[in-house]
Design brief:
It is built from four helices and no strands. It is mostly helical and 90 residues long. InterPro entries: P-loop_NTPase.
């Protein structure tokens, strides 16, 4: 357990208890970075495609196989400001 001043820090479990109902809601889709990065970033192509399909399904967008592959090929970029090194474990 993380401990600190009782009036300042809550235990990790108390913080987690506040977010779990939200994260488990049907309105929320949790996606792992490791699944999105795909083979170019050291991940798995099948997991990447499944993650992209899940996102599109969640926001009611239909993709054909060509669109799915195009998106997956564009997710990873060393030029993107949103990735540090763009590799799993970094």
């Amino acid at each position: 357990m993380i401990e600190g001043k009782k009036d300042v820090l809550e235990s990790f479990s108390e913080v987690l208890d506040k977010f779990l109902p939200w994260a488990q809601s049907d309105d929320v889709l949790c996606v792992k970075f490791e699944h999105l990065i795909g083979p170019n970033g050291g991940g798995d192509k099948h997991k990447q495609e499944e993650a992209v399909k899940s996102i599109c399904n969640h926001i009611s967008i239909e993709l054909n196989q060509g669109q799915l592959e195009d998106i997956c090929n564009k997710i990873y970029s060393v030029k993107s400001s949103t990735f540090n090194k763009g590799k799993i474990g970094n």
